[in-house]
Amino acid sequence: MTVSQPRQRPYWVALVGPLGLYLVVFLVIPFINIIVLSFYTHSPTRIWTTELTIANYIDLMDASFMTVLLRTLRLGGVCTVICVLFGYPLAYFLARASRRTALIGLFFLVMPLMVSAVIRTFGWLVILGRNGLVNSAITAFGLERLGLLYNETAVVIGLANVFLPFMVLPLMASIERINPALEEAARNLGASWLQTFYRVILPLSRAGLISGCLLVYSAAISAFVVPMLMGGARVRVIGRQIYDPLLISYSWPNASAIATLLVIATTCFAFAVLALMRRSARQEQGT
Amino acid sequence: MPAAASLRHATTSRGRANVALITTDKDQGSTPELEIRNLVKRFTPQSVVGPISLKVAAGEFVSLLGPSGCGKTTTLRCIAGFETPSEGSILLTGAAIERQPPNRRNIGLVFQNYALFPHLTIFENVAFGLRLRRIGKAELIQRVGQALELVGLPDLGGRYPRQLSGGQQQRIAIARSVVLEPRILLFDEPLSNLDLKLRLAMRKELRELQRRLGTTAVYVTHDQGEALALSDRIVVMSNGRIEQIGSPLEIYERPANTFVADFIGGSNLIDAVVMDVDAGATIIRTDGGLTLRASRTASRVGDRVVAMVRPERVRLIADAEVAAENRLNARIKELTYLGQDFQLAIDVPPEQELMVVARACAERGLAAGDQVVVAVDATDVLVLSK
User: Fold this and answer.
1) According to the CATH classification, is domain A59-236 in 2.170.30.10?
2) From the candidates A183, A184, A188, A195, which should be mutated to test the interface with B, based on the most B CB atoms within 10 A?
3) What is the ipTM score, two decimals?
4) Closest residue of chain A to B109, computed from CA coordinates
5) What is the DSSP string of chain A?
């Protein structure tokens, strides 16, 4: 027996079509362009020639680039860990708070995103700078000035500050879905607060944790403004490594190769994490 | 079932108090399993629960019954440790526990929504507390198996909670608590999410299980049928206070006040004045102009009282039955067929309306507008103070 189904109207075309078109024109095509560019040959006079080469990638195999790459990944990792450590308690608090408190909390949480990256970073400079608030306070007590800026710590502080909302929002969403009775059940069965967290809250908010880490990590390793202003020349990151050949030495093929590498790395990381998430979701459903 | 006996001593020396009309005080000098002393929980100045005092003997099944907001759940949460009392104390075999964190109390709690861990298998759900207590693998497997067998679901260990029906989930929730051999089992409206048939079946099972294990149980419900069927004693609560504590029979037959009379079962509550008090009975005159012989009370002549008559205690009688007490001529105002019974609203002259629940009306062919004769024994007319 065949059931005649009404023809499905392709309504999704109308819903995601405009955005899709936008992404193709302004993201996919430029990116393909970058990939192509990364295989062109650098020419000091004409920026590039269409002669194909893999020299741009081979150039990346040197120690100084590897140092920058590893530093970037490390900064991203530390930033993610810090966001988890600060974000989990905050997300839990907001998820379990009254509507009003949650709303006020969310406002303060998202506020850094409403300020331009440059202005926000200059704010940090005012606080951490050579004659900034912290150093003024320290010297007032007769102590030596500290070099708070232009090191990895400063970059991590700056990055964690911006990306904390990316961790808290997905975490909060998944903690909100955990029935509070489950926490009480765990306590009733003899779990301490910490045991309740590890055995109930953590596994049940894993999806939010994973997406939060994914967002923070991808954003942190491709950050540019914060590392440049707060890390200075000593803390070079990949973003800077792309910026310099692009706008200073006009070695576009070189910059394109780094950019391609960064995108591929981020994409692989994202897919690996999402696969992990799918598996844990399946486990949870018990299939 | 052998599993039950090995989990806990099989039976306890619980008095058969629920059979006697008037129970003796449960406090027989020995330390009660659970004692609540002047418990007060203040949320806001307007919202206060207590003071509440209650003793529960070992192996006893006590229900906290009342409408929502009466404080029964707050009391339960204080016992479980999820609320800290503002005043008063909670004693478990004589030792104060009200400042202990919930995870140190070893009091089992069965939740209304079951609260099974969705990310864990049934086996792991039941094993949760055992793992926290670092029970060895062999013993853990054995005890989880026994608990699952006890609730009649030995084969579901590998499933996940969402694959189970509501009734099965509730049994697992019970297994998860009893596997830890708690000193007291608390139930927070555990059957209210189940459909009627299942609720009745689970009610019976729950009672049998509790008897078999001999665990002291405190059961919160707003369902009077559940409380009457399950409990050794019922604590009727309203507005944060205890209205009456007694066996199901006492609560139903001898309600302490109009709230209990009204809340438990159907009742005619009639405003009246005490006309005369003699050795055997009280004579009252209702505001509807009816003179009734009622059971004895401490009231004095002239007191304003409320007379309570259960609808099923009003008998429809044949004219010839002359000897009946409180014999009244009435007219059927309304007649509702309920399947097993009829519910009648009758007008008794001069102007008293009464609700009556009766059987066998169909044989007599009664209809609205018919004249009938009804009677109520004086012992079935309770006089409650206003």
Assistant:
1) no
2) A188
3) 0.78
4) A188
5) --PPPPPPP-HHHHHHHHHHHHHIIIIIHHHHHHHHHHTSEEETTTEEES---SHHHHGGGSHHHHHHHHHHHHHHHHHHHHHHHHHHHHHHHHHHS-HHHHHHHHHHHHHHHHS-HHHHHHHHHHHHSTTSHHHHHHHHTTPPP---SSSHHHHHHHHHHHHHHHHHHHHHHHHHTS-HHHHHHHHHTT--HHHHIIIIIHHHTHHHHHHHHHHHHHHHHT--HHIIIIITTTS--HHHHHHHHHHTS--HHHHHHHHHHHHHHHHHHHHHHHHHHHHHHHHHHT-
